[in-house]
Amino acid sequence: MDLTPDVLTACLRRIATVLREQRQYLTDLDSPIGDADHGTNMDRGFTAVQAKLDGGAGQEPAAQLKLVAMTLISTVGGASGPLYGTAFLRAATALAGKPVLTLDDCVAGLNAAVQGIRDRGKATTGEKTMLDALVPAQEALSAAATEGASLQEAFQRAADAAEAGAQATIPLLATKGRASYLGERSIGHQDPGATSSALMLRAVADTLAGAVPL
After folding, report:
1. Strands (DSSP E) along 26-148, which ranges?
2. What does 113-130 look like in DSSP terms, one character per residue?
3. Closest CA relative to residue 138, chosen from 93, 108, 176
4. CATH class of 5-208
5. Sequence-ordered list of residues with C-beta below 8 angstroms from that of 13, at least 6 positions apart, any chain
6. Taking the model in full, what pTM does it have?
7. Which positions of the chain have pLDDT values less than 70?
8. Residue 185 CB neighbours (<10 A)
9. Which of 58, 78, 136, 188 is deepest in the core (most CB within 10 A)?
10. Domain residue ranges in the chain
11. 101: phi then psi, degrees, rounded to nearest 5
């Protein structure tokens, strides 16, 4: 199974639905260490993405990903908009000209997205950011591809790794972003950006697995 434009659209719609459902959860995570707006911001951004998907029907994956990027940059506040926007834009650039995406293409796209976040945020793992979920997911997706796993299985592994990574931010000291201002008081809280990253990857995995109707 390859990732066709229609399946990618279904994944993006599912992401929007999940972020809407988990808006309060993400806001609750953000309240003690951020500005208590991560859930609202992410919901607003992907609601705008969802509204634009019909107009992008039939577009190649790169065009869809660029649409997501530009929409998030223009609608999501705080650091999340530029970071996620950069991630989707880098992925779009890496996948330009491909009518459908193989698992190897998805690995290349995620690699580019993660590098974009590293570059934009000047961050690395262990600093209590979305990278603590995305880098384990990146590694899991790449390993699954090397082992010959299916697209569905690979994204299940990536989602599992992202969820474990998000939970592993709880004992970390934040050294980047708004949470870093709190110093040791940031310890004991799960990072909302890592959590939204994990939620998005789980939405993709569930869509590919058929848990969500296409």
Report:
1. none
2. HHHHHHHHHT--TTSSST
3. 108
4. mainly alpha
5. 50, 53
6. 0.94
7. 56-57, 176-183, 185, 211-214
8. 13
9. 136
10. 5-208
11. -115, 125
